[in-house]
Design goal:
Number of domains of chain B: 1
Structural class of chain A: alpha/beta
Largest sheet of chain B: 2 strands, antiparallel
Oligomer: heterodimer
Largest interface: A-B, 56 and 48 residues
Radius of gyration of chain A: 29 Å
CATH class of the largest domain in chain A: Mainly Alpha
């Protein structure tokens, strides 16, 4: 059986079960299912934000609270329709998330989760201390939802609205993850440099994701307020936020279905604990938090992938997708950049200087690269090659000097903007997303060539562009000789193939200049030869290549021109044969006095 | 605001700051050695306060039950570990270290209560009683995943807080208690300006303890081993320092600090089973000002948070916590601008 068919059958069965549930279950069970649905919406936001985007939030319940209080206040104090309340609640939640996100999402490492604890505590405290929001007693008498003549008072009545919302949100998230914006989101954990190298703004991507997750929580909060028709601060405090996080960990951090499964697991468990614990001891009800914490810790010790993660791994082992899904070859190609005329001046570095404190890593280096040639930047360890590379790609700011690229002054420009001008790079330490397939990894490279954002992706309004990007990624995979392996995971490739795949990703950006950072490092002989052949082919297709390399043999046979650096300054520039014969280069590499040395190292003893 | 109110608020703030300083040192100590943001720190302080309150009302502190339970679990974990590794010879040592050692303070507590020991002995017993809590918890929940990402450790540590506060409610009940002041004297500086003995005691304890910590880190081999582990775990392991052991030491030290904090604030604030959380979080703000690594900056931060909180509570008693937590935002922003953190790939949580 095929994994895809199995998955679809599972989803269809789940939809049928959800649709039939209220017909057979009692009132209590239906209202429990309502709670599960609302929890699943919040948890879904956390799956996207934490599980996939890698940013942990200990304050998600606060967003539920902002929306619940917003609609509660508007509908009770001003008597307007709950549907206007929805608009107001989402707007307020979105704005709150935007403000908090702008302030905190630049924080690195553990500071971000710690800051979420701070606002996760502060916001509910605020609810409890504002007179307009009823202080600790909260707001009551919230009107029920009304669709046409139907007032959704009964649990059974609001049930379908909640679960339609859950279904819609899952579909939205699924579409989002399989899109241009989704690839960027899935790459957030690869670091800001990776995203900048394909022209994406990691901060912007993370902010959009944060607001999306908050809006899901806000939608849940609106449903909560009109279902319970009463709000108070305590269901939105940090304890509740942790409970949502527990749902996601229990259900499976990496899977959309994990949100629903996790919400179900946690709320059912909570419910049965409330039934069982009082039988065990008089203080039983108080044991709930204890039992929950212990379960949470055990999960983190032994089953961090959660239930759906476990099922997914089991499924992958038995029902691997053997058939390639059909794809649309008819997509019209993405627009291409005009290529500069062969031999024209493309990249010019003028008097580049980079100081780190007292150390001069790059000292007054000037050189240029012409369109259509392969130029090698070489030098012994510590010569400043990598620093030079980082100055060109905008990873580091130069102390003084200038870089011009295709008529633009790119000195001091952000990495992302340089990438968008047509400089594509690879990394010395390969930065691929190991759990994305080859096609998605390459398609990430075409990020700057698309425009669709989160909303259009979620609603599937960008299919034309998405087809174009997919077709382009396939073309690049063919170009680098990995055409038949589009659906393998990048993490399963050997290092040599991973380096080739990085070049494929760079090519998907339709670059004018390809900058490669030690592409031959760690490759075997046959792989090096394949790499060299591919780079020659790219040159013949008009791509300009600047290559920083250690491997002399590899570079000498490949490049048109060489620039040799030593101790931060440019030593020699010229064609390979002349550079090899230069006594200064020999001295730099071998040490000692500049003495004549056989022009061909293979002839030496 | 008149000068005398400002004076009262400032001395109050400095005293609170002294408490945050001690808590901040504890948090930095644990974080730098183990990469764990130890959220349950405040709960341990609250347990010490409630234990002292139990002594004063002639009850056996319920903390004993908690410590013995944790010790039993840790002992089982140790023995199972040794049996699996087939080194049964280690088992007697494990029984002494994980079974008998944590039972000592329990025995002391029991003896103090039975003999109606003097006040100072009750204080000592209350502090000693909470010392095993952090190392035992760490052995059970954090050490098995010591190499997980900071984030996973943080989530576990937060879950630990909820575990402890749940247990706190179970053991101590929902009632708050306040203990007898440790010193009763009040010094009058000028007309209308006076300082309470308890305030002086808090500040003096903070100064002496932070001084002792400084000496310990600068002048003892153990202190240097802790610092080495903080700087580079792999490097420390290469020169023969065992990270698991230094971590245990850090937890013990932090637990001791938490105990002292508990008995220092119990006479001035009514402590409940869950009072520790907010206290710990405020100490975090101080620790984050120090970047979770610098002790001197943490001290400055603690003082700032204490004084800020004191003035904020004058302005609005109910909103003071909101105000103090909002202080975190500019601090974090400043930190993230100052930090030159390398662009690291983040580890996946679910691996």
């Amino acid at each position: 059986m095929n994994g895809r068919v199995l998955r679809r059958a599972g989803v269809a069965a789940a939809i049928v079960l959800v649709a039939l549930a209220p017909l057979v279950l009692g009132k209590f069970a239906v209202s429990l299912l309502n709670d599960i649905g609302i929890g699943a919406l919040v948890a879904l936001g956390l799956v996207l934000l934490t599980g996939i985007g890698g940013a942990t939030s200990f304050g998600q319940a606060a967003f539920v609270g902002v929306a619940a209080y917003a609609t509660a206040w508007l509908t009770t104090a001003h008597g307007v329709s709950p549907w206007l309340g929805l608009v107001f609640a989402l707007a307020l939640t979105g704005l709150a998330a935007l403000a908090i996100g702008v302030l905190t999402l630049r924080l690195g490492g553990h500071y971000l989760p710690l800051s979420t604890i701070a606002w996760g505590i502060s916001i509910p405290l605020l609810f409890g201390n504002l007179d307009a929001l009823g202080r600790h007693t909260g707001l009551s008498g919230i009107p029920p939802l009304q669709i046409g003549p139907w007032r959704l008072l009964e649990p059974r009545a609001i049930y379908y609205l909640i679960w339609a919302g859950v279904g819609g949100a899952c579909l939205f998230s699924r579409n989002l993850l399989h899109s241009r914006a989704g690839r960027a989101i899935r790459s957030l954990r690869g670091g800001a440099t990776l995203l900048a190298s394909v022209g994406a703004d990691a901060f912007g991507v993370r902010l959009a994701l944060f607001v999306t997750a908050a809006l899901l929580a806000g939608f849940a909060g609106w449903l909560y307020a009109h279902m319970n028709r009463f709000v108070s601060p305590s269901p939105f405090d940090v304890r509740a936020s942790i409970e949502y996080l527990l749902m996601v960990v229990a259900g499976g951090l990496g899977q959309i279905a994990g949100a629903i499964v996790g919400s179900g697991l946690v709320l059912l468990l909570k419910n049965s604990l409330q039934d069982v614990l009082p039988l065990l001891s008089q203080r039983g009800a108080r044991l709930e938090a204890v039992a929950f914490s212990i379960i949470f810790i055990l999960l983190l010790h032994h089953a961090r992938a959660g239930l759906t993660g476990f099922v997914a791994r089991w499924g992958r082992q038995r029902f691997a997708d053997r058939i390639e899904p059909a794809h649309d070859e008819a997509a019209e190609p993405l627009p291409r950049r005009p290529m500069p005329e062969r031999g024209s001046e493309l990249l010019t570095v003028v008097h580049a200087v980079k100081r780190f404190g007292g150390l001069v890593a790059v000292d007054d280096v000037s050189f240029d690269v012409r369109a259509g040639e392969i130029v090698g930047l070489i030098g012994p360890n510590g010569a400043g090659k990598s620093t030079m590379f980082n100055l060109l790609t905008g990873t580091l700011r130069m102390t003084s000097g200038q870089v011009r690229f295709a008529g633009h002054d790119i000195t001091g420009l952000a990495q992302r903007k340089i990438a968008r001008l047509g400089i594509a790079r690879t990394f010395q330490h390969v930065k691929l997303r190991p759990r994305m397939n080859l096609l998605d990894n390459v398609a990430l490279g075409a990020h700057a060539r698309g425009r669709a954002g989160v909303l259009r992706a979620g609603l599937r309004l960008e299919r034309r562009e998405e087809r174009q990007i997919a077709a382009e990624a396939r073309r690049q995979l063919e170009r680098i000789g990995l055409g038949g392996r589009a659906h393998e995971l990048a993490g399963s490739l050997p290092l040599g193939t991973q380096r080739i795949l990085e070049i494929g990703r760079a090519l998907a950006a339709d670059p004018v200049l390809l900058v490669l950072d030690e592409p031959a490092a760690g490759l075997r002989r046959a792989e090096k030869e394949a790499l060299a052949a591919m780079l020659r082919r790219l040159r013949s297709e008009g791509v300009t290549i600047l290559i920083v390399e250690h491997d002399m043999d590899f570079v000498m046979k490949l490049v048109d021109r060489l620039i040799v650096m030593d101790f931060g300054s440019k030593l020699v520039e010229g064609v390979p044969a002349a550079v090899r014969a230069d006594p200064r280069v020999q001295a730099a590499y071998l040490g000692g006095s500049p003495e004549p040395y056989p022009a061909n190292p293979e002839a030496a003893p | 605001m008149s000068w005398d109110i400002a004076f009262i608020l400032s001395t109050d703030g400095v005293a609170t700051g002294a408490i945050y300083l001690l808590a901040g040192i504890g948090l930095v100590l644990i974080f730098s050695v183990t990469r764990v943001v130890f959220v349950p720190f405040g709960d341990i302080a609250a347990f010490a306060a409630l234990s002292l309150a139990a002594f004063e009302t002639d009850r056996l502190p319920p903390t004993i039950g908690l410590v013995l339970t944790l010790a039993a679990l840790a002992l089982v974990a140790e023995i199972v570990g040794h049996v699996r590794k087939r080194c049964a010879a280690q088992i007697p040592k494990a029984i002494v270290a994980w079974g008998l050692l944590p039972a000592l303070p329990c025995a002391l507590a029991w003896a103090v209560l039975a003999a109606h020991g003097p006040g100072w002995l009750q204080v000592v017993a209350a502090i000693a009683l909470v010392v095993p809590i952090a190392p035992l918890l760490a052995r059970l929940t954090l050490q098995p995943i010591a190499d997980a990402s900071v984030l996973v450790l943080l989530i576990v540590s937060l879950a630990l807080h909820f575990l402890l506060s749940g247990l706190g409610l179970l053991f101590f009940g929902p009632e708050g208690s306040r203990t007898r002041p440790l010193v009763d004297a009040t010094w009058t500086i000028a007309d209308g300006y006076s300082i309470g003995g308890q305030t002086l005691l808090m500040v003096a304890s903070a100064l002496v303890l932070s001084g002792l910590f400084f000496l310990f880190f600068e002048h003892t081999v153990t202190g240097k081993a802790l610092r080495a582990t903080a700087v580079n775990r792999v490097g420390a392991r290469l020169v023969g320092i065992r990270p698991a052991r230094t971590a245990l030491l850090a937890y013990t030290g932090a637990s001791l600090l938490a105990g002292m904090i508990g008995v220092l604030i119990a006479p001035v604030t009514t402590m409940y089973y869950d009072s520790g959380f907010i206290l710990g979080l405020k100490a975090f703000i101080a620790a984050i000002i120090g970047g979770l690594v610098s002790y001197p900056l943490t001290a400055l931060g603690a003082l700032a948070v204490g004084v800020f909180e004191s003035f904020a509570s004058f302005w609005s008693g109910e909103m003071k916590d909101v105000l103090v937590f909002s202080l975190l935002i500019p601090v974090l922003l400043l930190r993230s601008w100052l930090a030159t953190h390398a662009d690291e790939e983040e580890e996946e949580i679910d691996e």
